[in-house]
Design goal:
Distance between the termini: 24 Å
Shape: globular
Radius of gyration: 21 Å
Number of strands: 13
CATH class of the largest domain: Alpha Beta
Bound molecules: pyridoxal-5'-phosphate
Order of helices and strands: HHEHEHEHEHEEEEEHHHHEEHHEHEH
Strand order of the largest sheet: 1-9-8-5-4-2-3-12
Strand content: 5-15%
Number of domains: 2
CATH topology of the largest domain: Aspartate Aminotransferase, domain 2
């Protein structure tokens, strides 16, 4: 059986977790949390990285820091995970969905400006499959209209747009270390703060609305409740696990890219034959092989292909049901402009197995079965 995903294990996770236990400090912001945030800051040249319990929580923090309140509007693609929208909805925002580009499945930057109103507060580009959105254009629009940009870089850790890492370009960047992502600790995430004005408040919000972080640095002599907040810091056990993964990030990344390139090469014959479409990575983007997907003719053919592969013990999946047509999406948001590609393109997309322990032989097995399927069409 070839599963769709297996969480990466690099070998040192248990060793670091034992070390965390021996240090007698299991709550957040200990030795391993500091190691992880320093690694993220050094590796990506980020001014501040705060570990969180998930990307969902990093997005929630960003929504608070951006000052999102009742009635504000936030622009994002409809083709994304629910958390991208939920983080803003729980602050009272109305979600304004914009269509995606069919080539990358990222928000169509040329449609953003038409969706801006006096109530717009933020834009949330989602770097789908770890391939960057058109960040130059998006940042220019944000500057012109004085908007905050929050990158949902859940899938984009280690990816770049031009010479900058995803998550470090907008005011905020949100990473996920969920087990389905490239580098993981089961459940985890990080908030990157690229505008230094927000750092102090971010530390407070993450520590239940207290100035505990400043207290530990000796900047105040007692800590107290000073702002809204919640508990967004992961335990040291999670951070210890994560550190083992970050140390091996290049090794994991290289292997994923090797599998990704093998998929692309093996399936190119079907693309040339006009039977499938393959992912497009624009010139300016260096991706992290978070996902390998292909697009078939329509929903019916996708269902047939998933069923065929399942009968060969190969597990593949699809996502997302566009948010603007889901029941909560209808209640909390609205698509502005035409749904030209979001629904139709999402129905054609199928994701192939891609994980750290996947072998090139398994890639070949998957692609051979896909070729078999199309030979019979
Ligand atoms: C995985 C994912 C999230 C949520 O990440 P968690 O760490 O599970 O909260 C948010 N947005 C996108 C685009 C994702 O892929």
């Amino acid at each position: 059986m070839i599963p769709f995903n297996q969480p990466a294990i690099t070998g040192k996770e248990e060793f670091y977790i034992k070390e965390a236990i021996q240090k007698n400090h299991l709550s957040g912001d200990g030795f391993f949390t500091k190691k992880c945030s320093a690694w993220l800051e050094d590796q990506f040249s980020a001014s501040k990285a705060l570990l969180t319990t998930s990307c969902t929580h990093a997005l929630e923090m960003a929504a608070m820091l951006a000052g999102i309140k009742e009635g504000d509007e936030v622009i994002m693609p409809s083709y994304t995970f629910v958390s991208t929208a939920n983080a803003f909805v729980i602050r009272g925002a109305k979600i304004v969905f914009v269509d995606v580009r069919p080539d990358t499945m990222n928000i169509d930057e040329s449609l953003i400006e038409a969706a801006i109103t006096e109530k717009t507060k933020a834009i949330v580009p989602v770097h789908y499959a770890g391939v960057a959105c058109e960040m130059n254009e998006i940042m220019n629009i944000a500057t012109r209209h004085d908007l905050i940009v929050i990158e949902d870089a859940a899938q984009g850790v280690m990816s770049k747009y031009q010479d900058r890492y995803l998550g470090t370009i907008g005011h905020f960047g949100c990473y996920s270390f969920h087990e389905t992502k490239n580098y993981n600790c089961g459940e985890g995430g990080a908030l990157l703060i690229n505008d230094e004005r927000f750092i102090e408040r971010a530390e407070i919000i993450r520590e239940k609305g207290t100035n505990r972080t400043r207290f530990f640095r000796g900047q105040v002599d007692k800590y107290s409740w000073v702002d809204i907040g919640s508990s967004y810091l992961p335990s040291e056990l999670n951070a210890a696990f994560l550190y083992a993964q970050l140390e091996q990030a290049t090794v994991i990344n290289d292997h994923r890219l090797e599998c990704w390139n093998a998929y692309r090469q093996e399936l190119d014959v079907l693309r040339i034959g006009g039977q499938i479409e393959l992912p497009h990575v624009p010139e300016d983007c260096t991706h992290n092989a978070h996902m390998f997907y292909l697009k078939v003719k329509n929903l019916e053919q996708r269902t047939a292909l998933i069923g065929y592969l399942k009968s060969k013990n190969i597990h593949t999946v699809f996502h997302y049901v566009p948010l603007h047509s889901s029941s909560a999406g209808l209640e909390f948001g609205q698509m502005i402009g035409e749904d030209r590609f979001t629904t139709s393109e999402s129905e054609k997309l199928i994701r192939l197995p891609l994980f750290y322990k996947l072998t090139l032989e398994q890639v070949k097995e998957v692609t051979n079965e896909i070729k078999q399927f199309f030979n019979k069409q």
